[in-house]
Specification:
The structure holds two protein chains of two kinds. Chain A is of the alpha/beta class. Helix content of chain A is about 40%, strand content about 15%. Chain A is built from twelve helices and ten strands. Chain A has helices spanning about 5-10, 15-35, 50-65, 80-85, 130-150, 165-175, 190-205, 235-245, 255-265, 270, 275-290, 295-299; strands spanning about 40-45, 70-75, 90-95, 100, 110, 160, 180-185, 210-220, 230, 250-255. The relative contact order of chain A is 0.17. Chain B folds into two domains: about 1-60, N-terminal domain of TfIIb (Single Sheet); about 65-160, Helicase, Ruva Protein, domain 3. In chain B, a hairpin with a 6-residue loop joins strand 4 (about 25-30) and strand 5. The longest helix of chain B has 17 residues, at about 120-135. Chains A and B meet through helix 2, strand 3, strand 4 and helix 5 of A and helix 1, helix 2, strand 6 and helix 5 of B.
Chain lengths: ~300, ~160
């Protein structure tokens, strides 16, 4: 049998060129996020609980507190944060040093796949038709890394990341960045709380210590007298807090005005600062600042 | 991937790259001793799997561009998603502002016309790659011929 040389005989640095690229990607990500003082994820695991609305209104409340705020819509398949923050249709600056994010309400820097895709276009990647399931996950992880690393976020006090449904999506984010904290959003439903408990377990396993619950759509306030009426027959959020040992930092009622304002990309916190919901988001923002951003609280 | 000419026991040298279609990458290699040529055809699915991580097989000729994977792979992209940011004389966010501004590259009308045919979603990125190519080689004016050379040298067949 003829003796054929090995790959490493002819190329001692085999595989180095791929590894070097991955190392360079990590370096760029770390360098880009260095001027961001705190990365805070808004997560759930469950869909339809209002993560994006909580992210948008919390971002506005933080900005009204005087913080420099950014918001990344990590929901690549169902983006909505750009619209909610009043930056629908905005264009991204094409700069060699990084893509410049548009600004939404209260000067919040926001980037979403809405900015990159045609209205109504489903998320699809080019190439190798028929086998997309094999590489779609890798492409989405790389796209999320690019949205974090290739956007010139600049100096921010807080970058909120709106994480899509699916506990695996939380794990994907944790592989890329180190979070200052995470807000776990749930509705009072038993099903929602069960899924959120899984997400809490994942965050605990990852060693993230700063985690708090946000109970959304807990009740409805009477327009006339303000009397609260529960929206769910049973409220499982108390048991969730007890089981996970997490504090509940906000209980947000359903408010039609908030829903409309958020859908239209307006800030209810600015338009109706004395409303109950605005006060709840203001209190949530202050809690985030005091507990997770102590340097901003002192400033 | 390496190819050894068994008759000569020589590592074959890269000679040419083509994108013949269906996602196949064709790379031609030649033996430096006897001149024998072979064409390697990549499996489109495997190539896509690796490129989905945002890395290039065989290393990079061009530094990774902002949102490169999204811009090169996204279907249904918004044509007007990006607006050009004028180069500033002071250092840009990349720290390359002075060098870029001090050695501006001009575009011939024919080169600009060709650039206009590039989809808007990737045009800024492509323009920057060509301009950097010319700047790094001391070429003051970009023409279609320079663009062709850049495509071949940098492996930009898809651009």
């Amino acid at each position: 049998m003829r003796k054929i040389r090995t790959y490493r005989d002819v190329d001692p640095d085999a595989g180095r060129e791929l590894l070097d690229q991955v190392v360079e990607q990590r370096r760029r990500l770390a360098e880009r996020l260095a001027p961001v003082r705190a990365l805070v994820a808004v997560v759930s695991g469950k869909g339809g609980v209002g993560k994006s609305a909580v992210t948008a209104n919390l971002a506005a409340a933080l900005a009204l507190e005087g913080l420099r705020v950014g918001a990344l819509d990590a929901d690549l398949n169902g983006p909505s944060l750009g619209r909610m923050l009043g930056a629908a249709g905005a264009r991204l600056g094409d700069d060699a040093g990084g893509v410049l994010p548009p600004r939404g309400i209260e000067g919040i820097k926001v980037v979403s796949m809405e900015h990159l895709q045609e209205e109504g276009a489903p998320l699809r990647w080019k190439g190798a038709d028929g086998h997309a399931s094999l590489w779609r996950g890798a492409a989405e992880t790389a796209a999320l890394r690019e949205l974090l690393a290739d956007v010139a976020w600049g100096e921010l006090d807080c970058l909120l990341i709106d994480v899509p449904p699916g506990v695996d999506k939380i794990a994907r984010l944790l592989e890329l960045v180190s979070l200052r904290g995470a807000l776990l959003v749930t509705t009072p439903s038993e099903i929602s709380c069960r899924v959120v408990a899984r997400s809490a377990g994942l965050l605990r396993e990852a060693g993230l210590e700063r985690v708090a619950l946000v109970a959304n759509m807990t009740h409805r306030l009477c327009d006339a007298c303000g009397h609260p009426t529960p929206l769910f027959e049973a409220d499982a959020t108390g048991a969730l807090a007890a089981d996970t040992g997490l504090e509940t930092w906000a209980r947000i009622p359903f408010d039609g005005r908030l829903a409309v304002a958020t859908d239209e990309g307006r800030s209810l916190a600015a338009e109706a600062p004395h409303s109950t919901v605005a006060a709840i988001f203001r209190a949530l923002a202050r809690r985030v600042v005091e507990r997770w951003l102590p340097e901003e609280a002192e400033a | 991937m390496k190819f050894v000419c068994l008759g000569c026991d020589e590592v074959m040298a890269f000679a040419e790259r083509q994108l013949p279609g269906d996602g196949t990458l064709a790379a031609v290699f030649a033996c430096p001793s006897c001149g024998r040529e072979i064409a390697m055809l990549t499996n489109p699915m495997e190539t896509r799997l690796v490129s989905s991580m945002g890395v290039r097989i065989g290393g990079r000729e061009v530094p990774e561009q902002p949102l490169e994977l999204v811009r090169s792979s996204l279907e249904g992209a918004r044509e007007d998603a990006f607006e050009e940011v004028p180069e500033e004389p002071s250092a840009s966010a990349s720290g390359r502002g002075d060098a870029r501004a001090s050695s501006r590259v001009t575009w011939s009308p024919e080169a600009l016309e060709r650039l206009e045919r590039v989809p808007g979603f990737v045009r800024g990125m492509v323009k920057r790659i060509y301009a950097d190519y010319a700047r790094e080689r001391g070429i003051p004016r970009l023409t279609p011929e320079v663009m062709d050379r850049a495509r071949s040298d940098l492996g930009l067949e898809g651009m």
